[in-house]
Amino acid sequence: MIGDYTLLEFSSILAMQGFAGLILFSVFVLMALGLAIIFGQMGVINMAHGEFMILGAYVTWLCSGLVTAYAPALFPAYFFIAMALAFIVTGALGILVEWAMIRHLYRRPLDTLLATWGLSLILQQLYRSVFGAREVGVSLPDWMMGSFALTDIIEVPINGIFVMALTMLISLAVFLLMFRSRWGKQVRAVVQNRAMAGAVGINTKKVDRLTFGLGCGVAGVAGSAFTMIGSTGPTAGQLYIVDTFLVVVFGGAASLLGTIASAFTISQAQSTMEFFMSGSMAKVLTLLTVVGILMLRPEGLFTLKMRR
Amino acid sequence: MNTTLYTRREWIALAIVAALILIVFPVTMDVFRLNLVGKYLTYAFVAVGLVLCWGHGGILSLGQGIFFGLGGYCMAMFLKLEASSPENTAIQSTPGIPDFMDWNQVTELPFWWVPFKSFPFAAAAVILVPVVFAYVIGAAMFKRRVGGVYFAIITQAIAAILTILIIGQQGYTGGVNGITDLRTLLGWDIRTDSAKFILYFVNAVLLIAVLVLGQMVRMSKFGRLLIAMRDKEDRVRFSGYSVADFKIFIFCLAAAFSAIGGAMFTLQVGFMSPSFVGIVPSIEMVIFAAVGGRLSLFGAVYGALIVNWAKTSFSETFPELWLFAMGGLFIAVVMAFPNGLAGLYRSHVEPFLAKLTRKSPPSPAPDTAPVEAVKLAAE
């Protein structure tokens, strides 16, 4: 007996909280992956990252509306089309932003931070003007509704499992792209030594632009996945941005593996503590612990060893 | 090296600022508008702190709202306790404690509220609490050589944590509404028009004192070191200076300035709430300094006045356009006018004035150099 619960009940509650944590983990990973690519690899602070995510969510919402209206037969599979579209639209916007703004500011990271914050305000207001201030939700296809019953007490929702599977797939794709492809090799070369990378014939400006586009595109897919588990409003992106930055910094800015490990730690800690205390205190404690650890170990959990 | 505190041009600039806020505003505005300007000027304290800390020291803090809020809350706690005398709160189930505590079933004044019954303690706490807090953050970060964007993100996270904490602990802090319904300061009713008028002048005089103090820091040897640290931190360290201690000092000083602003805000506006603490207000405070010119102390005052005035009038008439304007402002001051209004004044108005008076144009001020240098380095 633990408190008023039997051992079985208690472990089931832990499992349920753990599962809720896994969904939070998926959102964190999807958002943080894009951010880690941009921040870790390029040293650019993109405060508008949350708004790129929300753009992906709105694209998915539009898709869901259009498919329901014009091609109801496609409805069970519309989500995959929406995801691809979200990637393309946000990636394109990312490339545009890099061209218009970011490339002028590479040596001034603090200024990039302020400029992208300005961009995020503009995008928020744009969403509010175009899509309205109210939150929107997509309708899920039938096969995503409902939940599995693992035991009598533990139930897991199917859309949660779907989002988790998606997260794993996207993480895998990003890993393959960064560590197995020729392009990924170029990106890593530019990160490690820009001048030498340029000297051996890598077009560093093009690599920068595509990296930024890829980071934003991944954010768009994250937004697309986000619509499966929550509703979307113009300011939803801002709610996650600080958490996500902490995830990236805590994981070690240049390490994608660290990002995933820290997303897992933070989300699990938060959702487990949420059961024992109020949600706000759980968040305060989690964030305080992260900030405290960062003060002791500023380079984060995982660091990339390289000569400077 | 300058041995005098102000050059002639700067004396004139100081005189113009002083005349504007001490004479022009009070003469031309009614008490309501004047109170509004007084509120804007409390943000100028924060902006002046940021000019020193960010513009000169290169430390971008996205958490100045923390210190503004802490200063404001310390003042609000004192005023709230004075307003919650047992006679005023006789209808509560526990008379003598603030109303929001009673609503949240708190039956006893928490121990950390008790000292705020004394005005000297509260007045000291307005400065000391934020400064100690800034010292802890600064010492933890700068001693480990955490700087730049990491510092910005962590201060931002702390601002977020503090907001969540204040909102979550409703019974002790007043929650999302903040501490409201403040009435008297040592028996003096702060809600009357005459009190607002007097408080405006107290605020204005304090602001000028802070401006002079800021100029003293700028012109001292420490001010030179600050700029050196921003541009080549390692060289300053290798020259034998303790970079971390200097950074902690300037960060604490900026926190103290913000805290004074926060306390004056509470006195003039009559409440304090977490909406002045969090991420969004904190980053807006940076834009006040950026618009005025991140290197100009006087610019900070104009920046705070202009941005807040624009915000009030825009959001009254075209609320949906305000965020576009604000976002555009952020992008513009970074990409087109990195030295803000002060930079525009120096590059456009000053040569024009010089032509008018037929004197040789003044030599470009050393302040404009850094951003230019950064630009050159980027190309």
UniProtKB/TrEMBL annotation, chain A:
GO terms for cellular component: plasma membrane. It is found in: Cell membrane. InterPro entries: ABC_transp_permease, ABC_UrtB_bac, BCAA_transport_permease. The keyword Transport applies. Coiled coil: none annotated. Keywords: Amino-acid transport, Cell membrane, Membrane, Transmembrane, Transmembrane helix, Transport. The chain crosses the membrane at residues 20-40, 52-71, 77-97, 109-127, 158-179, 212-233, 239-263, 275-296. It is a multi-pass membrane protein. One of its GO terms (biological process) is amino acid transport. Signal peptide: none annotated. The keyword Cell membrane applies. One of its GO terms (molecular function) is transmembrane transporter activity. NCBIfam families: urea_trans_UrtB (TIGR03409). Belongs to the binding-protein-dependent transport system permease family. LivHM subfamily. This is Urea ABC transporter permease subunit UrtB. It comes from Paramesorhizobium deserti. The lineage of its organism: Bacteria, Pseudomonadati, Pseudomonadota, Alphaproteobacteria, Hyphomicrobiales.
Automatic annotation (TrEMBL), chain B:
It holds the Pfam family BPD_transp_2. It is a multi-pass membrane protein. The keyword Protein biosynthesis does not apply. It is found in: Cell membrane. One of its GO terms (cellular component) is plasma membrane. Keywords: Cell membrane, Membrane, Transmembrane, Transmembrane helix. It comes from the Bacteria. GO terms for molecular function: branched-chain amino acid transmembrane transporter activity. The chain crosses the membrane at residues 12-32, 44-70, 119-142, 149-168, 197-217, 238-265, 285-309, 321-345. The keyword Cell membrane applies. This is Urea ABC transporter permease subunit UrtC.
